[in-house]
Specification:
Blueprint (H helix, E strand, L loop, with lengths): L30 H4 L12 H8 L9 H4 L7 H9 L3 H8 L6 H7 L21 H15 L14 E5 L3 H12 L3 E5 L8 H4 L8 H14 L2 E3 L10 H6 L5 E4 L5 E2 L12 E3 H9 L18 E5 L3 H12 L3 E5 L11 H10 L2 E3 L2 E8 L5 E14 L5 E5 L5 E4 L2 E4 L3 E2 L3 H5 L25 E3 L2 H4 L4 H19 L19
Parallel strand pairs: 1-2, 1-4, 2-3, 4-16, 6-14, 7-8, 7-14, 8-9
Antiparallel strand pairs: 5-15, 10-11, 11-12, 11-13
Length: about 500
């Protein structure tokens, strides 16, 4: 038998397992401080923290995180550049797929998308993709190193983008990079859509949105403000009179939904849209510096459990109110991001869970004095898979408030469909598209975002917009598209 014990055949020792650092927390304002100001809550990563967090990435050969990203960002690619300390290059690489990285790094639900697919998350915490995305975007902007990319020769084709929200801005960014002439038509006086009127300053500073829009302007995107398509001009007129070769609709879902209970017409009842628009876009919180009627109140109830409800509640808190979230299901069933619920509770927002409003109470001047609610309990699961809330008989009670904010969702604005009868729409008022191409029933017209899917996330709207932009490019190059037909849509589905 051969001797294997000599020094020429050493016993191989197993390599020590590489210890990876824990997920790096992002420094933020203390709850007691931020609850009374509108400054951004998280401070962001330092370069040292960013490189440490980036070092946790496994650089997978088949990165599932990319599959979880609606815009298919090369996540391992930009993180590898952070590991090397090449922050500017990382930002530029990121922006090849995502025109709005500083925004997405702040408001996208990464925990449900890219980070949920991270291998590290199987036995621990995933890589903080959103925080790293925010870091490189901020680093590039603050360093003054934002460079306009080299664009291809002009194609001579014109594309009209309707709506300057996340979907419209994304489509504009992709199409200008393809060499087309792009004009964005926006009904409001500010660009950004829900990014400026809906999301509060402490979660998404408006200067960030302006910087992202300015990047698009530097590339050549034209913006026409205070222009309502469907009133100032129809889509047909954009084609026939203005010479556009294709149209993209990204008007979102800005029509508020209400509860349908007694008292919703009282003074002091707001839709979340109105409440947040007054604060964010019209700067009511700075009254009288800005001549918008103030919305400061002492006792506020916000009805709903999504991100918009959290935004409304945290805004009301900063305006000095004693704030209750009224939600008919349990905390774990809230559709809001875990981070947003956590921040709201830290700051002092009170949660009235398993609670459903029955009516809003008022005085002889028709002003809100309270909201009557009933206690709920969870029954059998409904169609969404969540246990259905069931009223508890005889459990009615009143919360004394002077303001009620309804934050239970939004519906699409019907203006464009009504001005274009041959545009197929669903019974909910959303525009029907071919999901593979985002083509509508009208040749040359494409749509994406909340106007198609109903109220959803910023990043999902951007993902659809990227698909639509690619389809528009193919359409302008001569490819024919078969969108949904009016004949395939029953009359009951049309608005």
């Amino acid at each position: 038998m051969a001797d294997i014990s000599n020094s020429d055949n050493p016993v191989l020792e197993p390599k020590p397992k590489k210890e990876r650092p824990p997920r790096q927390a992002m420094p933020e304002q203390a709850p007691e401080d931020r609850a009374r100001n509108f400054y951004e809550v998280p401070y962001g990563y330092t370069p040292e923290l960013a490189m440490l967090e980036a070092s946790r990435c496994l650089n997978c050969k088949k990165p599932k995180c990319v599959d979880g990203c609606p815009v298919h960002v090369d996540i391992p690619g930009f993180i590898a550049l952070i590991q090397e300390g090449n922050f500017i290059e990382a930002a530029q690489h990121l922006k090849e797929q995502n025109a709005l990285p500083a925004i997405c790094g702040r408001v996208c639900p990464q925990e449900e998308q890219c980070e949920s697919k991270c291998i590290l998350g199987l036995k621990g915490e995933p890589v903080a993709v959103g925080r790293l995305e925010r870091f490189v975007a901020d680093y590039e902007r603050e360093s003054g190193a934002v460079a306009t990319p080299v664009l291809p020769p002009k194609t001579g084709k014109k594309v009209a983008i309707i709506g300057a929200g996340p979907a419209g801005l994304t489509a504009a960014g992709d199409l200008i990079r393809m060499g087309h002439e792009v004009t964005v038509f926006e009904a409001l006086q500010e660009t950004g859509g829900v990014l400026v009127y809906g999301i509060p300053e402490f979660r998404l500073p408006k200067e960030i949105v302006k910087a992202e829009v300015n990047f698009l302007k530097q590339m050549g995107v034209e913006f026409v403000m205070d222009f309502v398509v469907g009133r100032n001009a129809t889509i047909r007129e954009l084609f026939e009179d203005e010479g556009y070769n294709a149209v993209f609709i990204g008007t979102g879902a800005g029509l508020p939904a209400f509860l349908g209970i007694p008292g919703e017409n009282l003074v002091g009842v707001y839709s979340a849209n109105e409440y947040l628009t007054r604060s964010n876009l019209m700067k009511s919180y700075l009254f009288p510096k800005y001549d918008t009627p103030p919305i400061r109140r002492e006792r506020v109830a916000v009805v709903g459990g999504g991100n918009v409800a959290m935004d409304s509640a945290r805004t009301a808190l900063r305006l000095g109110g004693d704030v209750h979230i009224v939600y008919r299901r349990a905390k774990e069933q809230m559709p809001a991001r875990i981070e947003e619920v956590h921040h709201a509770e830290q700051e002092g927002v009170k949660m009235k869970l398993l609670t459903n409003p029955k009516r809003i109470l008022g005085d002889e001047r028709h002003r809100v004095t309270g909201i009557e609610c009933i206690q709920m309990e969870l029954g059998e699961p409904d169609d969404s898979g969540r246990r259905r809330p069931v009223p508890v008989k005889g459990s009615e009670f009143v919360i004394d408030v002077d303001t009620v904010v309804i934050a239970i969702g939004n519906n699409p604005n019907p203006l464009i469909p009504r001005s274009m009868p041959d545009l197929a729409t669903s019974k909910w008022g959303t525009i029907i598209v071919d999901e593979e191409t985002m083509a509508t029933s009208v040749p040359g017209v494409f749509a994406a975002g909340d106007i198609v899917s109903g109220a959803a996330t910023v990043i999902s709207a951007m993902g659809q917009a990227r698909t639509a932009a690619a389809s528009i490019n193919r359409y302008l190059n001569g490819e024919e598209f078969q969108g949904p037909t009016m004949a395939a849509t029953s009359s009951s589905q049309l608005t």
